[in-house]
Design goal:
Helix content is 68%, strand content 0%. By secondary structure, the chain is mostly helical.
Protein backbone atom coordinates (compact mmCIF):
# COMPACT_ATOMS: atom_id res chain seq x y z
CA UNK A 1 0.00 0.00 0.00
CA UNK A 2 2.94 2.25 0.41
CA UNK A 3 3.58 2.28 -3.34
CA UNK A 4 0.07 3.62 -4.05
CA UNK A 5 -0.08 7.29 -5.12
CA UNK A 6 -1.43 9.49 -2.45
CA UNK A 7 -4.11 12.08 -3.40
CA UNK A 8 -3.27 15.69 -2.61
CA UNK A 9 -5.53 17.45 -0.16
CA UNK A 10 -8.57 19.47 -1.31
CA UNK A 11 -6.67 22.74 -1.63
CA UNK A 12 -3.98 21.13 -3.78
CA UNK A 13 -6.62 19.72 -6.12
CA UNK A 14 -8.35 23.11 -6.47
CA UNK A 15 -5.01 24.79 -7.26
CA UNK A 16 -4.25 22.16 -9.90
CA UNK A 17 -7.66 22.79 -11.59
CA UNK A 18 -6.92 26.53 -11.84
CA UNK A 19 -3.51 25.81 -13.37
CA UNK A 20 -5.11 23.52 -15.96
CA UNK A 21 -7.73 26.15 -16.86
CA UNK A 22 -5.04 28.84 -17.35
CA UNK A 23 -2.99 26.53 -19.55
CA UNK A 24 -6.05 25.72 -21.67
CA UNK A 25 -7.00 29.41 -22.07
CA UNK A 26 -3.47 30.14 -23.38
CA UNK A 27 -4.03 27.62 -26.20
CA UNK A 28 -7.34 29.26 -27.32
CA UNK A 29 -7.24 31.16 -30.59
CA UNK A 30 -9.14 34.37 -29.94
CA UNK A 31 -10.90 36.15 -32.82
CA UNK A 32 -9.63 39.47 -34.08
CA UNK A 33 -11.54 42.68 -33.33
CA UNK A 34 -12.83 42.81 -36.91
CA UNK A 35 -14.16 39.25 -36.81
CA UNK A 36 -15.73 39.87 -33.38
CA UNK A 37 -17.56 42.97 -34.69
CA UNK A 38 -18.82 41.11 -37.77
CA UNK A 39 -20.16 38.10 -35.86
CA UNK A 40 -21.76 40.35 -33.22
CA UNK A 41 -23.49 42.37 -35.95
CA UNK A 42 -24.81 39.17 -37.57
CA UNK A 43 -26.18 37.96 -34.23
CA UNK A 44 -27.92 41.28 -33.57
CA UNK A 45 -29.44 41.38 -37.07
CA UNK A 46 -30.80 37.84 -36.65
CA UNK A 47 -32.27 38.73 -33.24
CA UNK A 48 -34.00 41.85 -34.64
CA UNK A 49 -35.29 39.90 -37.68
CA UNK A 50 -36.85 37.18 -35.55
CA UNK A 51 -38.31 39.70 -33.09
CA UNK A 52 -40.09 41.47 -35.98
CA UNK A 53 -41.11 38.16 -37.57
CA UNK A 54 -42.60 36.77 -34.35
CA UNK A 55 -44.49 39.98 -33.57
CA UNK A 56 -45.99 39.93 -37.09
CA UNK A 57 -47.06 36.31 -36.56
CA UNK A 58 -48.52 37.20 -33.15
CA UNK A 59 -50.47 40.24 -34.37
CA UNK A 60 -51.61 38.45 -37.52
CA UNK A 61 -52.87 35.48 -35.53
CA UNK A 62 -54.68 37.79 -33.14
CA UNK A 63 -56.30 39.62 -36.07
CA UNK A 64 -57.43 36.35 -37.69
CA UNK A 65 -58.88 35.03 -34.43
CA UNK A 66 -60.65 38.33 -33.85
CA UNK A 67 -62.20 38.22 -37.35
CA UNK A 68 -63.54 34.69 -36.91
CA UNK A 69 -65.07 35.64 -33.56
CA UNK A 70 -62.84 33.64 -31.22
CA UNK A 71 -62.74 36.41 -28.62
CA UNK A 72 -66.50 37.14 -28.60
CA UNK A 73 -67.93 36.85 -25.11
CA UNK A 74 -70.98 34.67 -24.79
CA UNK A 75 -73.09 35.49 -21.77
CA UNK A 76 -75.61 33.03 -20.48
CA UNK A 77 -78.21 33.72 -17.85
CA UNK A 78 -80.04 31.19 -15.77
CA UNK A 79 -83.30 31.73 -13.96
CA UNK A 80 -84.56 29.74 -11.07
CA UNK A 81 -88.25 29.33 -10.28
CA UNK A 82 -89.84 27.80 -7.24
CA UNK A 83 -93.10 25.91 -7.12
CA UNK A 84 -95.77 27.04 -4.63
CA UNK A 85 -95.86 25.05 -1.39
CA UNK A 86 -99.19 23.59 -0.27
CA UNK A 87 -99.63 22.56 3.33
CA UNK A 88 -102.98 20.83 3.27
CA UNK A 89 -104.30 18.23 0.80
CA UNK A 90 -106.23 19.93 -1.99
CA UNK A 91 -108.60 18.77 -4.67
CA UNK A 92 -107.30 17.74 -8.09
CA UNK A 93 -108.72 20.83 -9.78
CA UNK A 94 -106.84 23.13 -7.40
CA UNK A 95 -103.51 21.36 -8.06
CA UNK A 96 -103.99 21.73 -11.81
CA UNK A 97 -104.72 25.44 -11.36
CA UNK A 98 -101.60 25.84 -9.20
CA UNK A 99 -99.52 24.01 -11.82
CA UNK A 100 -100.84 26.33 -14.53
CA UNK A 101 -99.96 29.34 -12.38
CA UNK A 102 -96.42 28.04 -11.77
CA UNK A 103 -95.93 27.48 -15.50
CA UNK A 104 -97.11 31.01 -16.24
CA UNK A 105 -94.78 32.50 -13.65
CA UNK A 106 -91.80 30.48 -14.89
CA UNK A 107 -92.27 31.83 -18.42
CA UNK A 108 -92.12 35.47 -17.33
CA UNK A 109 -88.82 36.48 -15.78
CA UNK A 110 -88.37 40.01 -14.52
CA UNK A 111 -86.23 41.61 -11.89
CA UNK A 112 -88.35 42.92 -9.05
CA UNK A 113 -87.56 46.21 -7.39
CA UNK A 114 -88.36 46.80 -3.76
CA UNK A 115 -91.76 48.23 -4.60
CA UNK A 116 -92.63 45.28 -6.82
CA UNK A 117 -91.53 42.82 -4.16
CA UNK A 118 -93.78 44.54 -1.58
CA UNK A 119 -96.72 44.24 -3.99
CA UNK A 120 -95.86 40.58 -4.58
CA UNK A 121 -95.87 39.93 -0.83
CA UNK A 122 -99.36 41.45 -0.53
CA UNK A 123 -100.67 39.27 -3.39
CA UNK A 124 -99.09 36.15 -1.90
CA UNK A 125 -100.86 36.81 1.40
CA UNK A 126 -104.24 37.14 -0.34
CA UNK A 127 -103.62 33.92 -2.31
CA UNK A 128 -102.67 32.09 0.89
CA UNK A 129 -105.90 33.25 2.59
CA UNK A 130 -108.06 32.07 -0.33
CA UNK A 131 -106.29 28.69 -0.41
CA UNK A 132 -106.85 28.12 3.30
CA UNK A 133 -110.56 29.00 2.93
CA UNK A 134 -110.90 26.57 0.00
CA UNK A 135 -109.13 23.77 1.88
CA UNK A 136 -111.37 24.29 4.92
CA UNK A 137 -114.45 24.04 2.66
CA UNK A 138 -113.15 20.87 1.00
CA UNK A 139 -112.46 19.28 4.39
CA UNK A 140 -116.02 20.07 5.53
CA UNK A 141 -117.40 18.34 2.41
CA UNK A 142 -115.48 15.14 3.12
Amino acid sequence: MADKKKKPNIFGRIAQKYKDVRAELKRVVWPSKEKLKNTSAVVLVVIVFFAIFLSIINNGGHWVLEKIGFYDNVTTTTTMTSAPVTEAPVAVEETEAAADESEATSETTTEATTEESEEADETDESVDESETEETEESEEEV
